[in-house]
Write a structure and sequence with these properties.
2 copies of one chain form a homodimer. By secondary structure, chain A is α/β, with parallel strands linked by helices. Chain A contains 9 helices and 18 strands. The longest helix of chain A has 21 residues.
Chain lengths: ~375, ~375
């Protein structure tokens, strides 16, 4: 996180002695060392030339009877490129061009599962509470421009890609994450389960709560699920993805500092601990300005801080609060079962008791 | 937290400039300022004389149509006093004498609801996995020595007191929190819902998972519930207390550094955010050494770090990792509804969907 342009993690790193820093990291990040990975010289250069940060970390597991199951994950946070007044196709294409460069670096770093931020191919116009002017940002999950663009990259790089978009299904809108497999094929989609109705972010005036339950996608590289943005506030949403077998749950988001920035490091991390899986939290960056029909302006700034957490509660530092970035996380999926075996939260969960209690509450309310 | 005897919070406070410190506090504690309260001179002196830390903080709410509903809470963390080889009655009485002094300070500070740590009136002998030698630490919830002792203090100070003990109910043991009202009367009890079976902490060899559901006690000073120790890892446990109307949920614990110290600041804080109530996390301090039947020793050290969180995610700094302490927290219970109204997590929870999904999972597993 930056304070007047300076990263707070960096400040703490420089001001604490090594022993103090270890203790700080242990308490705040779960482990004394961040286990940073080196990236290629060519990747660093591409990051510098195209103004995006690259950071890479590793979560390893203990040696056990199974061979390691290493998944290399890429998380991209980015700002929009053009003014929101430009033609929609131009705005979208400019974002595609930016993402194309970042994904090529992810591929060079051998990333196999990549996730973009919520409604990644557009400005987050939902804060305007207006529909008409922005409607052409919505698209088909299976055939829209975002799918076509990412499908070819997924195939080219044998990469699973999660593409959170604003879906238009024959006139009905949904906030949807599309999963594209490593052959570039449509694998399935998940629609956002919980919608905020807070201040100008009244998503219920655009679309309904998702009707796709809690799907887990059994990809070539691991079992993955997507908990979209505001759904991270609901413990049961996280729980169901876990009960359905997820090893990694992505949380693509668009969230502003005024809305609980201090929650950001808590909720997805708690979910990883509680459910014995990895979580990946992605938030957009940059400032977006919209002109409404009455000519008034709406301005929103997003704080990035993309990070990942392992099932043992260890987390990576966050990406920048203001710059585009690619977070690469190497994770051994064996850690999921290892942590469950160590802690036994799944074994002691008493789900039968809760199914009954919840049924009773629902029946009376 | 202390590093080689020095408090890490203090180190950070001294090394960051005021602007950086504000940003640090905002991210890690939820607010730039800790809103510390002054305690009386006589309380400070009593703390010094009796070697316990006193810290006091405030969580206020916005002005609204209702009058403020201020609850002043006291949380006590403490070490045992005598060797575990001494007669059990002496060990217990020595702890009573220590707690008596701390509660008198809490009363002088106008604390109205007080909670002690898990199995507060004994060493946490459960790590020995032996029963016979320690059986006399168990007691009746309604008539045992802990109840008798605290009942008189509750009445004397018009204070609600939560007394987590090892209950002996006609030969059957339970890990139980007893709630005593401000008249010194037994108000009810809650038995620990989730039991760890980790390493030497195999609680299932002592007692069964609780059979009291998720009671909320409507005390004179607010609606309270108790989530005992390991139950903090279960999101549904927290959820049910919230659905049943809790405004403050206490988490009395006995937890050691090897067991996820980095979780400590995450789980209860997440629960406060997710459920729109205050959480109070209490952990014992000090090192306890036990001699087993085969003369081998078992040694366990607890890390304290007692803290409280408001429904908006703001948290207090933690108490010491090594010293006895009294944490006083002034909280306006109006904040619970205010945060719910702001965020709408309760309104968007879709409990009917989860009751169905959970029922389906339970039915097939």
């Amino acid at each position: 996180m930056e304070v007047s342009g300076t990263n707070l993690d960096e400040i703490i790193k420089n001001k604490l002695n090594p022993h103090q820093l270890k203790e700080f990291n242990k308490i705040y990040y779960g482990r004394a060392d961040h286990c940073e990975l080196k990236v290629k010289q060519s990747s660093s250069e591409a990051g510098k030339n195209n103004k995006f940060q690259i950071a890479a970390y590793s979560f390893l597991a203990e040696k056990e009877t199974r061979d390691p199951r290493i998944a290399k994950i890429g998380l991209i946070q980015h700002s929009i490129v053009l003014s929101t007044e430009k033609p929609i196709e131009e705005q979208r294409q400019a974002i595609f061009n930016k993402i194309d460069k970042i994904i090529s670096v992810a591929a060079a770093e051998d990333v196999k599962v990549l996730c973009l931020q919520e409604t990644w191919s557009m400005p987050f116009f939902l804060c305007t509470r207006e529909k008409d002017k922005w409607a052409n940002f919505t698209e088909s999950a299976e055939q829209g421009p975002s799918f076509t663009f990412l499908s070819s990259l997924a195939k080219k790089y044998q990469m699973v890609i999660i593409s959170p978009i604003l879906e238009n299904d024959e006139g009905t809108w949904w906030n949807t994450a599309v999963v594209i497999n490593e052959k570039g094929e449509f694998m399935g989609k998940h629609r956002k389960n919980h919608l905020p109705s807070i201040g100008s972010f009244s998503e219920t005036s655009y679309y309904s709560p998702g009707n796709t339950g809690h799907p887990v996608f059994d990809t070539k590289y691991g079992k993955i699920a997507v908990n979209i943005c505001y759904g991270r506030h609901q413990a049961l949403n996280w729980l169901m993805f876990g009960l359905n077998g997820a090893e990694i749950v992505f949380n693509p988001a668009a969230t502003i500092a005024e809305f609980g920035e201090s929650f950001w490091g808590i909720e997805a991390r708690n979910a990883a601990i509680a459910n014995g899986y990895f979580t990946c939290s992605i938030n957009r960056v940059g400032t977006e300005i919209f002109t409404k029909i009455d000519n008034s302006k709406v301005k929103r700034s997003y704080y990035g801080s993309t990070y990942a957490t392992a099932p043992n509660g260890h987390r990576t530092p966050g990406l920048s609060k203001v710059n585009d970035g690619l977070l690469i996380v190497e994770m051994d999926l064996n850690l999921c079962r290892q942590v469950k075996d160590q802690w036994g939260f799944n074994m002691t969960a008493r789900l039968d008791m809760y199914a009954q209690e919840l049924e009773a509450v629902v029946g009376t309310k």
